[in-house]
Amino acid sequence: MPVDYAGMREQVARAVQQQAAQRARLDGLARQAQALLRAWAEGEARQRLAERVEQALRLQRGWRGAQPLLDLDEPLTAVHPPPAPVADWVVLAADGSQINPDRHAEVYFGLINIGLVAFGATGAPLALVRSRLLIGEDLFVGAEEGPGLGLQRDLAERQALAWAVAVLRGEERIRRQMEQAFAPLAEASPGAGQAEGLQAWREAAWVVTLTDGPLELWGARPGEEGAAYAPSLQSYLDALEQLRCLQALPVGYVDRPRADLVVRMLELVQGVAPTSGVGPVPEVLPGAGTPGPDGSPGAGAPLGGDPARPFLGLSDRELMVELLRQPGARSTLFRLRSQALERYAPDLAPWFFYLNVSPWPERPWVVRVEVPAWVGRDPQAVQVVHAVLWEQCRIVPGRAYPYALHRAHETAVVTREDREQVSRLLLATLQQALGVVPERSQKQRLKDDFTRRAR
Amino acid sequence: MSGQAISVGRLLRAGTTAFVAGCQVQHLDRPYFGALVRAPLGDDKAVYGLIYDLRIEDDGLVRQLALADTVQETVIHDNRTHRNVPVELSVLTVGYRQGERVLHLLPPRPPLSLDRIVLCDEAELVRFTASGRLGYFRHVLRAQGIPMEDLLATHIRQAQRAHQRHPEGQPDWGRRAVQRLVTLLRDDYEQLVRVLDALGDALPDGWHIEEE
Questions:
Q1: What is the pTM assigned to this prediction?
Q2: Which of B64, B78, B81 sits opposite A399 (nearest CB)?
Q3: Is the CB of A398 less than 8 angstroms away from the CB of B61?
Q4: Residues contacting residue A111 through CB under 8 Å, at least 6 positions apart
Q5: Which one has a higher pLDDT value, A431 or A298?
Q6: For a tag site, which of A136, A217, A405, B104 has the least CB within 10 Å?
Q7: Which residues contact B159 (CB under 8 A, 6 or more apart)?
Q8: Residue A225: its pLDDT value, please?
Q9: How many CA atoms lie within 13 A of A10 on its CB side?
Q10: pLDDT-above-90 percentage for chain A
C-alpha cells in the first residue's frame, strides 16, 4: 500500500504554517539570546555565568551545555578572523561505515569498515581501508549482545587515527597497542593500502586528526548504558591519550550542528542582571531534558511554553550566525559540560568553538569544531586547527566540508552491493566447510517476494 | 609469443565482439588509440583487439573540483591515484590465437574479469596483421559507434611501420591493406572516401614512415 499522499497534503500544509510561525518566533529568540550573550560576555558577568553552570550541573540532572573558559582572556563574543595558511602540516581523517547484523538474513554477521586518508601540505596523499568482520561471539560484549556497531565503529575510528599517527611518528609501542585493540590495522591485505607511506610526514610540525561528529564518544545517558559502553569509553580515552602523547591535534567536526550548548548556558541567566549576585538556578521541568517521573526519557516541553527553557528550539548555530558573518571566522572557545563528561580527565575533556566555513558573506555556514582541552589551551594549536579546516573546506567549490573527511567517508562507505558480496562469501564458505545451508527468515522471504513483484 | 609484454590494464567487462579494460591513470602513457592488444583465453589461446576508445569518467566530486580556480596538486594526485575511477579502454575484438595459429575470426568466448590486457609488440603486430587475408578488417567495418576511419588509418600506420622495421615484416603490407579496404568498401563509396581521407592524414609522406 503506498503512502496516503492525498492525506499528507493537508498535514504538509499545516506543518508549513507552523514552521512559518516558529521561524518568526525563533528569529526573535535569537535576537534576545544574542543580546544576552553580549551582556554576559566579559569581566565579572562572565565569571558569574561560569559559576551558574557549575550550579546547574550540581542541581539539574542531565544538564548539558557550554561553560565560559575563564583562563581565556577574551569576551564570549570574540571573533577570530581566518588565519594565514599554515605550512608543514598533515591531516589524518578517519570515517567508519558498517553492516549491522540482520536477524532475518541467512547469516547473522556485522562488519566495521574504516577509511583513513592522509593529506599533507606536501607529499603524496594516502588512502587506507581496514575491515573487520564480526560474527558469533564477536557480536557479544561479556554476556550481552553489543549495543549496535555504531559504538564499536566510532571507537575503531579513533584507534585507527592513533595507530596512524604512531606509524607516522615511528612509535612502535603505541602502534602495536592499537593493532591489538583493532586487529585489522595490522592484518590488512596489500590492496587495502599500506601505512608505511605515512612516514613521509614524520617531521611534520603539525598533525591534525579529524573525525566527523562530536569528539565525545557518544553513548547512552549515564545510568542507562549497557555493559559495552564503559569498556568502550575507556578504550576511547586511551586512544585519545595516545594522540596526546604523539602530539597530534584531534578534532571532531560537526556539520550543521543542532545542539544548543551555548543557548542552554544563556538560559541560566535569562532574566538575571549581569551585575547581580548568583541566584538560584531556574528549575527545569520534566520533559525538557531530564527523565520523567517514571524514568522514561524526557519528551521535550511544548515550544514556547516552558519558562525554564525560554530559548527552547533555538540552536547555537542560529545564535552564532550573526556573530560569524565573516567567511572563515571562528568564535571563542567554550568548555562542554555535562555529568557524562565528568568521566573524562580534564585534559581530554572536549572544548569547542563555532566556525563559519562558507566563503560567501551572505550565506554563512556555521559548524562546531571540538578539540580536547590540551589542544584548546594552546593558542597556536587552535590557530593551526582553524587554518587547516578553513583550507580544507575551500577545496571543493560550493561544498564547504573538509575534503579529507569526505574522502575518508568515500573510502569507508559500505554499499548494499558490498553487503551482498560479504554475505555470499560467508554463505559459500559455510556451505563448503560445514555443509550448512542457512535460510532467511520467513518474514524476509515474504518481503523479498513482494519486492520482486513490485519491480 | 612476445618477449616483454607491457600490461595496459585489467578486464572489466567483455562480450564476444568487444571488451573493456580498466587502466590506472598513472599508466595512461601505455595504451593508445588504435593499438593492438591481447587478452588471455586460457591454455594456449588469446584474443586480439584494437583499442578504439579511451575514456576517463567523471563523478560528482571531480565535477565540483573542476569548478575551482586552482586545485592543489595533492588533491589532483588523490583523485588520480586513490579514487575508484579507472580509465576505461574499449577494445574491438579482431581475432584470436590458438597455439601458434592466428585466426581473424571472433573468439570462442570472451576473456574473463581481471584478465591482464597486454600491448602487442612489433613482432606480434606483424604476425597478426600478416596472417590470412586481412579478414579482421570486416570486424572494424561492421562495428557500430566507433571512429572507424580513424581507427583503420591509425592501425594501418602503426602496422606499416612495424612491417618496415621488423625483419619478418612485409614491406608492401600497407598497400595490400588499402587494396583490401577498397575491395570491401567498393559498394559504399562515401565510407571509402572517408577512410581514404583518414589514411591520407595518417600517411602524409606515403608508405615510408619516419621514426617517431
A1: 0.82
A2: B64
A3: no
A4: A98, A99, A131, A132, A133, A134, A149, A414, A419, A422
A5: A431
A6: A136
A7: B36, B125, B126, B129, B173, B174, B177
A8: 59
A9: 3
A10: 60
